[in-house]
Specification:
A hairpin with a 4-residue loop joins β27 (about 730-735) and β28. Among the domains are: about 30-335, Beta-galactosidase, Chain A, domain 5, CATH 2.70.98.10; about 615-820, GH92 mannosidase fold (2-Layer Sandwich). It has about 800 residues and is α+β, with helices and mostly antiparallel strands. The structure holds 2-acetamido-2-deoxy-beta-D-glucopyranose (10 copies). Keywords: Hydrolase, Signal.
Length: about 800
């Protein structure tokens, strides 16, 4: 086994600077998808604070109204603090995840009566969310108290600066260091200590936001820059704490007290507690913002001492501009992996959407290497895999093109999860296993790595034999609780489907719901094992076994069910083989009857966050089978059209992601070209409501990147559907191969950039040429083509081609049933 030394990623040559003259970070709009209220959360639950790529520390302000999954909402809500960690775009608890150890600035108050509690200190922003601005690596806002808040950060540390209004007479400024308030108010115990050197150390146990467990986090704040002892001006400090649990919002402030400690209770504790620091402020003028307090922070999951070490190691010098510039440079490096050679002439909105989406697609998962509280390992540790169900479709395939070095580390974190728990993690977040939504969708992620980088695995430091074993174990074994990790393989292997109303004799537990959608995802997971087995030259019997199992999705097809004039739908099934009927529109956006469509036992529909209407299209590895079951190309196309026109499409949720592209399989890439534009221009935009659903750890962001580039990845395969891009050219750079591949759209027509391209506009792909050789198919290319270096030319025109994808036998994208993916 070879390990790649840590730190290699940042020191490897990243190849040519593709946009040397351009400042791509300036094109990122961090506020897309931060509006309130849509889809059971904000219009995206986007996190607009300061963070480096794959950061553990995600520093941002929190508001006091929910839903606020990422702490922030672009509205007029009062601010309760600036806290150290957040999720990006997730669903889960509507109060949010993390939001731990917030700071809050209070101006001139009398020390023992300062309004330190969450309720008392909540303060409006000067102009609501118009007071906020951010660029990659930097966030700022202005409160009505006249206090400006700024943040910048590294992977596990950073700086937070408060600039107080100046007074003509000397005054005092205060900072609250809050021990207990995470976004969920779920404090279960912890402690805070203050040293006279102006160092505050904290530890706290809180509930995870999507699961049943708790986690313990640590932080360290320094308020004295050793290089500038005179600038600090700490004149007084103490603690505040609730007078009692029954009166949590009445506090006592105790000057000179240096510590508070609350034993772990197992219940959430409603108290208020923390530290209060007073800084002396010299007289100034109203114009001179001379009165600042800067805090350096570190976070950790190991100990508060480690949090201090993280701060000292990552921000050794309190040089704000250097920290911010280093963060910006890391982002520039990520963003320039997709370059626009013709940037000045591209549509400005598309450019903003592209770079804002590339940004969000690299915020998570979080690199928590050296911060794993549970086992020690030479491998990278990643968290905020929230959830693989969300990110396997687009985020990981995007990483596979542009970011193999980071991706290899993330894949290693998945494999290491199996190594230490027996199963591939599915939804690890806040360091703990979260709920399983459908399949164990780390499987298509690992399968994708095997098919794309299996031959380079040792170079990338991934023990590929372990990766394969992780896939097999997750495909074969049934954990004691498959609701938190793994799959209900007992049922899947015994029946070839997931039976409804069946008591598992193995004693394995889980919520026996979502039977049909779980089975459809299990089939894709088994396809991923099959693909890995082929790529890694595993035994013929493994290949045959998983090929066979991956086709078992057909066992949920009930040909007798009709809806809207179409026959045959995926349905639940009893152990005796009889189908259990659910209306195909149940749990669709136009479901006429209220149903529970999530995880609970009250989900009696059989589908998770999707309908039978939609999931009946989900077999990305054998779409020809679906077309056959649906009665052929023409019925399939008509049925897909009806799916869109009736409103079964749900732009904001993952099961819908593939749908605009499905016409490719029925030889109609022309319809896909129109659908992709319709979806992008109907549902996405650069406003705060510009994401149609939760961003889901960058899943929607990566989807939009693919739509813009005219690509859609087929899970666990080296195939990408190709279409009509929204930019005239782009270059993707692959770090490992040090290749640049330029895709040029011949006859690119900017008038097609609309929900409905005008008649006669050149929206349809006519031919695809890779390094001078015209391809038989205009519907797909190989991943090797997009990372292989050189030139891909997509010619577009006003008329759809007469022979669909092309006339060769393999012009259509692959399907297992047709002998594809050989
Ligand atoms: C993750 O953290 C490790 C340990 O500091 C570091 O070596 C690696 O470069 C980091 N990777 C990314 C993508 O930040
Ligand atoms: C990457 O390729 C560029 C030319 O495209 C070359 O200048 C550079 O030296 C290469 N870097 C490495 C590490 O091979
Ligand atoms: C990049 O653009 C931002 C926003 O326009 C600007 O603040 C920053 O100084 C620029 N940085 C560089 C290195 O040009
Ligand atoms: C600051 O607060 C103190 C105590 O409440 C008060 O005496 C003083 O006037 C205040 N100073 C200013 C500038 O408001
Ligand atoms: C919470 O934390 C405690 C102490 O670390 C631990 O014993 C317990 O198992 C955790 N989980 C839950 C669900 O309480
Ligand atoms: C800090 O202030 C003291 C007292 O005013 C002064 O003697 C000393 O030179 C100052 N130190 C620095 C580094 O400015
Ligand atoms: C600080 O105050 C709390 C609450 O009054 C008390 O329990 C604790 O012992 C004090 N700590 C110190 C170091 O005095
Ligand atoms: C899978 O294997 C079983 C048992 O050999 C067989 O009955 C079934 O037809 C196979 N399914 C497919 C799709 O080949
Ligand atoms: C199969 O089981 C279901 C549920 O118990 C029952 O309604 C149905 O009649 C059974 N079918 C047959 C053919 O026995
Ligand atoms: C598909 O829809 C078209 C247009 O509505 C219609 O003419 C055609 O008959 C339909 N095809 C089938 C097989 O139903």
């Amino acid at each position: 086994m070879r390990f790649r030394p840590t730190g290699l990623i940042l020191t490897l040559s990243l190849g040519p600077a593709l946009n040397a003259a351009t400042n791509l970070t300036s094109l990122v709009n961090l506020f897309i998808g931060t509006s309130s209220g849509a889809n059971g959360g904000s219009g995206g639950n986007g996190f607009p604070g300061a963070a480096v790529p794959h950061a553990m520390a995600k520093v941002g302000i929190d508001v006091n109204t929910a839903p606020r999954q990422a702490g922030y909402i672009a509205d007029d809500s009062p601010v309760t603090g600036i806290s150290l960690m957040h999720d990006e775009g997730t669903g889960g608890n509507t109060d949010g995840g993390y939001g731990i150890f917030p700071l809050f600035p209070l101006g001139n108050c009398s020390f023992t009566s300062c309004p330190a509690t969450l309720q008392a200190r909540s303060t409006l922003r000067q102009f609501g969310s118009a007071s906020d601005s951010a660029t990659p690596g930097y966030f700022t806002t202005m409160l009505i108290s006249g206090i400006q808040i700024e943040a910048t950060s590294t992977r596990r540390a950073g700086l937070i600066r408060f600039t107080f209004p100046a007074f003509t007479a000397p005054t005092t400024n205060h900072i609250v260091v809050d021990l207990v308030d995470d976004l969920q108010r779920s404090f279960q115990g912890g402690s805070i200590s203050i040293s006279p050197s102006a160092r505050v150390m904290l530890s706290g146990t809180f509930l995870q936001s999507y699961g049943t467990d708790n986690y313990t986090a640590y932080a360290c704040y320094d308020f004295a820059d050793p290089a500038q002892p005179n600038a600090t001006r700490l004149v007084q400090f103490g603690t505040y704490q609730s007078t009692s649990v029954s009166s949590p919002n009445t506090i006592t402030i105790t000057p000179f007290n240096t510590s508070l400690s609350y034993p772990f209770t197992g219940n959430t504790n409603p108290i208020q507690a923390g530290a209060l620091l007073e800084f002396d402020a010299p007289a100034g003028t109203a114009e001179s913002f001379s009165s600042t307090v800067t805090a350096r922070f570190g976070v950790s999951f190991i100990s508060s001492e480690q949090a201090c070490l993280n701060a000292e190691a990552e921000v050794p010098v309190w040089d704000w501009d250097a920290v911010q510039e280093a963060s910006r440079a890391q982002w520039e490096n990520v963003l320039e992996r997709v370059a626009l050679p013709n940037l000045e002439n591209e549509d400005a909105t598309v450019v903003e959407l592209l770079y804002s989406s590339l940004y969000r697609a690299s915020l998570v998962p979080a690199n928590m290497t050296e911060e794993n509280p549970y086992w020690s390992s030479p491998y990278a540790f990643y968290d905020a895999m929230f959830c693989s169900w969300d990110v396997f479709r687009t985020v990981h395939p995007l990483l596979s093109i542009t970011s193999p070095l980071e991706w290899a580390d993330i894949v290693n974190a998945y494999v290491d999860g199996w190594r230490h728990t027996g199963y591939i993690p599915e939804c690890r977040a806040n360091t703990k296993a979260g709920y399983v939504q459908g399949g164990s969708d780390g499987m298509p992620i690992l399968g994708d790595f095997a098919v794309k980088y299996g031959a380079h695995a040792s170079e990338l430091g991934v023990p590929i034999g372990d990766l394969y074993q992780a896939l097999v174990d997750t495909a074969e074994n049934t954990p004691s609780n498959w609701y938190m990790v793994g799959r209900q393989n007992t049922a899947w292997i015994t029946f070839g489907y997931i039976p409804t109303d069946w008591v598992d004799p193995s004693g394995a537990m889980g919520l026996p719901t979502r039977e049909a959608s779980r089975a459809l995802e299990y089939a894709v997971g088994d396809f991923a094992v099959r693909q890995a087995a082929v790529a890694l030259d595993e035994s013929a019997s493994d290949i045959a076994k998983y090929t066979n199992r991956s086709m078992n999705f057909v066992n949920h097809w009930d040909p007798t069910v009709s809806s809207d004039g179409y026959n045959g739908f995926m349905q639940r099934r009893y152990p005796n083989g009889t189908f259990a009927f659910s209306p195909p529109d149940a749990c669709s956006p136009i479901d006429p009857t209220p149903h529970s469509c999530v995880r609970g036992t009250d989900n009696d529909v059989g589908f998770y966050e999707s309908s039978s209407w939609e999931m009946s299209f989900f077999a990305p590895h054998s779409m020809s089978t679906i077309i056959r079951l649906m009665g052929g190309d023409e019925l399939f196309v008509n049925r897909t059209n009806l799916y869109f026109s009736m409103g079964y499409f749900s732009a904001g949720n993952e099961p819908s992601f593939q749908m605009p592209w499905m016409y490719h399989y029925a030889n109609r890439p022309d319809v896909s070209a129109l659908r992709v534009r319709q979806v992008v221009y109907t549902f996405f935009g650069t406003g705060i409501g510009g994401i149609p659903g939760n961003d889901d750890s960058g899943a929607m962001a990566a989807l939009l990147v693919f739509h813009i580039l005219g690509l859609y990845p087929v899970p666990a395969s080296r195939q990408l559907l190709i279409g009509s891009p929204l930019v005239s050219s782009y270059t993707v750079h692959n770090q490992l191969f040090n290749t640049s591949t330029t895709v040029t759209v011949q006859n690119f027509d900017a008038t097609t950039l609309a929900a409905t391209p005008p008649a006669g506009s050149q929206v349809y792909v006519q031919s695809v040429t890779v390094n001078g050789v015209q391809r038989d198919s205009i519907c797909w290319i190989a991943w090797d083509d997009i990372v292989g270096g050189g030139e891909i030319v997509i010619a577009v025109g006003a008329d759809p081609t007469t022979d669909g994808c092309g006339s060769a036998p393999d012009s259509r994208p692959s399907s297992l049933e047709q002998g594809g993916f050989a």
